[in-house]
Write a structure and sequence with these properties.
With about 475 residues, the chain is mainly beta. About 15% of the residues lie in helices and about 40% in strands. The model has no long low-confidence stretch (mean pLDDT about 95).
């Protein structure tokens, strides 16, 4: 797998809203070790109707920093709908060897174009609701197997795809190491403070852009002393967690237990990251990784379970069932949707077998699934308060919600032409101590229906929740509405 070249990647937002910037990014990682000159970039964009736009940029840019990036503005003119973008990069290393490649220079991977959807409508979300990426990684997550994106690019991409805020959740075990030399120790508190400083500076510089919330993905110990990951929503001081970082050999015990971490946080929302993700035998033995269990989620300080982790696979199915189990025990815990993206604005590339092979997919793309909360503003303080509440919506497109007033329940659902008309809206109810939920009410639509707004008598349940699915396969689900 080793090659004496930096990683060179072309990336772009997976979707772009009307009126938002349409750009493609060139990123070069580790050019401080392997300097290169990027001579040119040739772009070819084609939409589903066959319309083609081409651009060519003569650059001759010397890259000698650890993480170089440059943005290139694109025009929507003459293009609509689903776009395929091919980008050919020509580069030369310090020995005078020149290469030309499509989109990236990772070995052993099929060369694919980027895929971008140019949306034609605003997102179908009501005023007063704010959408965010709840699990993602910036360049402050840098280790032997992965690295994230510059905070500036994350904020710009969030703006293009339609987010209002970004919870950055860089690994606790990476703050102890230099970003440019991930095996060399550094002062974690200083590194974390620099991370906060950069995020706050970008928020001040561009107040109309999505809010960056500098949080953390803390490795901590579950009830069995195994490493699990906890997402923290913007806290003041660094929380140590080197247990499963892979840089202490077999000294893989958690630094802090989950209880100890929660006790250090006062009024800061936290969420269980991918609580039912499948963990292989090697991960369990080498990194002492485990999963979240019943006894780990009893604290009211834990506000949510991030079981929707970019895709609808087994971890979603099992995680959602785990969430419903908690609701049926009377726990007012939120569902959280996020992507665990390390940069990965258009596709995710990662290690399949260490030192042997890589993989590429579109299952953990930045901003593709998001969590929405009602809030007065998108300030960190207001968002923090919102996540301490009991209302949120998880979605990859449509919107759905329940409210309770005067012994009646209001049901709202909406979609747009970009995500397809509504196919179904279903309300489920649960009683404390029951083994499973009950289907309370279901709407199925034969005609093109973009919205639902109905009021019903309150069902005789301790809580109700609602899900919506569109004809394009997009979906949304609400938090549980407990009826007291």
């Amino acid at each position: 797998m080793y090659k004496p070249w930096p990683e060179m990647i072309l990336d772009a937002p997976f979707q772009v809203l009307p009126g938002k910037p349409f750009s493609v990014y060139l990123l070069v990682k580790d050019a401080d070790l392997y300097p290169v000159v990027i001579h040119s970039l040739k772009l070819r964009l084609q939409d589903s109707q066959g319309n083609v736009v081409e651009q060519e940029h003569t650059l001759n840019v010397s890259c000698e920093t650890n993480l170089f990036h440059q943005s290139f503005s694109l025009s929507r003119e003459g293009l609509r709908g689903d776009i395929r973008l091919w980008g050919w990069i020509t580069a030369e290393n310090a020995r005078g060897k020149a290469v030309r490649f499509l989109c990236h220079n990772f070995p052993g991977l099929e060369k694919r174009p980027l895929e971008i959807r140019l949306l034609e409508h605003a997102l179908p979300h009501p005023q007063g609701w704010f959408a965010g990426e709840m699990h993602c990684h910036s360049e402050f997550s840098s280790d032997p197997v992965e690295f994230g994106a510059p905070l500036r690019l994350m904020q710009e991409t969030a703006n293009s795809v339609g987010l209002d805020f970004v919870l950055c959740t860089d690994h606790s075990y990476d703050f102890n190491y230099r970003r440019d030399r991930f095996l060399e120790f550094t002062n974690a508190d200083v590194n974390f403070a620099e991370y906060q400083k950069q995020a706050y500076a970008l928020n001040s510089e561009r107040p109309d852009f999505p809010t960056l919330v500098p949080g953390e993905e803390v490795s901590c110990g579950n009830s069995r002393g195994e490493n699990v990951h906890l997402l923290v929503f913007g806290h003041e001081k660094f929380l140590p967690g080197l247990g499963d970082g892979g840089r202490r050999g077999f000294n893989n015990h958690p630094d802090l237990s989950l209880t100890e971490v929660l006790n250090r946080l006062n009024g800061v929302p936290t969420f269980a990251a991918h609580p039912k993700a499948k963990i292989g035998w090697l991960e369990r033995k080498i990194f002492r990784r485990g999963e979240w269990r019943e006894e780990d989620v009893v604290s009211p300080s834990l506000r949510g379970l991030q079981f929707w982790n970019g895709n609808l696979g087994a971890d979603y199915r099992d995680g959602k069932a785990f969430w419903i189990q908690q609701l049926l025990q009377g726990r007012k815990i939120l569902p959280i949707a996020a992507n665990d993206a390390h940069g990965d604005f258009n596709q995710n590339i990662g290690v399949k077998l260490p030192l042997i092979s890589l993989y590429q997919a579109r299952s953990h793309v930045f901003g593709k699934v998001r969590t929405m909360v009602p809030s007065p503003t998108k300030s960190i303080a207001d968002l923090r308060t919102a996540f301490l509440g009991e209302s949120c919506v998880c979605t990859d497109g449509p919107f759905v919600n329940l409210t309770f007033e005067n012994s009646r329940v209001k049901v709202e659902a909406s979609s747009s032409g970009d995500f397809g008309s509504l196919q179904s809206v279903v309300i489920y109810g649960g009683k404390t101590g029951a083994q499973e939920e009950v289907l309370c009410k279901e709407w199925r639509f034969n005609e093109a229906t973009m919205g639902l707004d109905e009021t019903l008598p309150a069902p005789v349940f301790d809580y109700i929740r609602v899900e919506a699915v569109t004809r394009n396969g997009n979906r949304a689900l609400s938090s549980a509405l407990f009826i007291s």
